[in-house]
Amino acid sequence: MHPVVKLAKDSVELYIREHKVLPVRDEDLTPEMKARSGVFVCLKVRGMLRGCIGTFQPAEKDVAAEIVRNAVSAATCDPRFACVRADELPNLEYSVDVLTAPEQVNSQADLDPKRYGVIVKAGGRRGLLLPDLEGVDTVEEQVGIAMHKAGIPPGAPVTLFRFEVKRYH
Predict the structure, then answer these.
(1) For residues 141 and 137, what is the distance between their CA atoms, to the nearest angstrom?
(2) Nearest-angstrom CA–CA distance, 113 and 145
(3) pTM of structure
(4) Rounded CA gap, 55 and 60, in Å?
(5) DSSP 152
(6) What confidence tens digit (pLDDT) does each residue in 108-148 have?
(7) Longest CA pairwise span in the chain (Å)
(8) For residue 23, what are the contacts with CB-CB under 8 A and spacing of at least 6?
(9) DSSP single-letter state for residue 165
């Protein structure tokens, strides 16, 4: 298991079992954990989403702290799901996406749902969809889902941003 994924797993397990946040020591960090970046942590059970929470820009001091925070949030705060129970822990599958900084693009022609994630923005509303998701094959689907998540009506003008991820399983 990659150290980034192990950190997410250990964070969720400690929090669910003991309601404690995993302490992270600088000497335990790999080089990618010491950088600053947005991070998404997704949990699945038998391939079905069980929780996914993240930050598209860094909110913590380093990637390790982002992973700990977002892993616990994915297990306990995703409004689409009940909190993860201790009996579910052995069945959880983890993925961690470390994001590049979002860059504004001029049109949907600059997007590719397999390579880039997308952020749509209209007024104070913002929606994000990660890249390379099963069942999302076109730019139109990707943008539409992100708009729906943000509560932006179909056809409304939006500002588009794209980003790439390094995905760890």
Answers:
(1) 7
(2) 11
(3) 0.94
(4) 10
(5) P
(6) 999 999 999 999 999 999 999 999 999 999 999 999 999 99
(7) 50
(8) none
(9) E
